[in-house]
Amino acid sequence: MSTPIFLIGPMASGKSAVGAILARLLGTTLIDTDARVVAAHGTIPEIFAAHGEAGFRRFESQALADAVRPHAKAAHAKAAPGIPAPADRCAPAVVATGGGSVLAAGNRDLIATGFAVYLLTDAATVGPRIGADTTRPLLGATPLESWSRIFAERSELYEATATLRIDTRGRTAAQIAEAILTAYRDAGH
Ligand SMILES: Nc1ncnc2c1ncn2[C@@H]1O[C@H](COP(=O)(O)OP(=O)(O)OP(=O)(O)O)[C@@H](O)[C@H]1O
Ligand SMILES: O=C(O)C1=C[C@@H](O)[C@@H](O)[C@H](O)C1
Ligand SMILES: [Mg+2]
């Protein structure tokens, strides 16, 4: 089983958009943990309203664990004597994480089992993307101020969790996906 690719980074950095292109390049479909949480539990604002941020984080951790479970199973089978190794050529899982997934140590440990790509960006770049945002409850009434504060709080966690950091500023999602694929291959995956 190939090493899974995890995309990490702040809200609107492009994890879902880049992930969809990267997955297509690799011949697989994107696993978007936010989308899985929404499919199972309702919209993100609804979840925050009903269960608080803590409830959302529990669903997020579960979605992340479910995303990597097939990989962990295959890695175990490979190590177990007498069990044939799974095909090595299957496409790696591409996982777009939620922006706050790095907050929990358990999530960071899971992400560290794969190739973790930090999509670096800044307030000037995401400003136009989050201006009228109603889908990200943490951004509230002053999205850019909230984004900047949250980014400052988490920046070190993104850096520490990443295998690779990509500066996404001034690049299209397609260019970023291509750069990740090249780095992933260069790293021997
Ligand atoms: N490199 C890019 N250039 C231009 N637009 C981009 C780029 N990357 C993403 N976008 C756009 O920015 C918006 C936010 O991107 P996306 O939803 O992928 O962010 P995200 O990191 O998944 O955010 P979240 O953490 O909230 O899930 C989307 O409209 C997307 O199409
Ligand atoms: O950065 C965050 O805390 C979040 C990012 C989004 O991906 C969603 O997971 C949610 O809006 C929270
Ligand atoms: Mg996303």
Automatic annotation (TrEMBL):
List of residues binding substrate = 34, 57, 99, 154
- What does the cofactor section's free text say about binding? Binds 1 Mg(2+) ion per subunit.
Q: Kind of enzyme, top EC level?
A: transferase
What would you give as a GO molecular function for this chain, any one? Answer: shikimate kinase activity
This protein's cofactor list reads: Mg(2+)
Q: Which domain of life is it from?
A: Bacteria
* One Pfam family it belongs to: SKI
Q: Where does Mg(2+) bind?
A: 16
Q: What Enzyme Commission number(s) does the record list for this chain?
A: 2.7.1.71
- Tell me the InterPro entries matching this sequence: P-loop_NTPase, Shikimate/glucono_kinase, Shikimate_kinase/TSH1
Q: Family per UniProt?
A: Belongs to the shikimate kinase family.
Q: What's the stated role of this polypeptide?
A: Catalyzes the specific phosphorylation of the 3-hydroxyl group of shikimic acid using ATP as a cosubstrate.
Question: Can you state the subunit structure given in the record?
Answer: Monomer.
- In Swiss-Prot or TrEMBL terms, this protein is called Shikimate kinase
- The scientific name of the source species is Paeniglutamicibacter psychrophenolicus
Source organism lineage?
Bacteria, Bacillati, Actinomycetota, Actinomycetes, Micrococcales
The gene name reads aroK
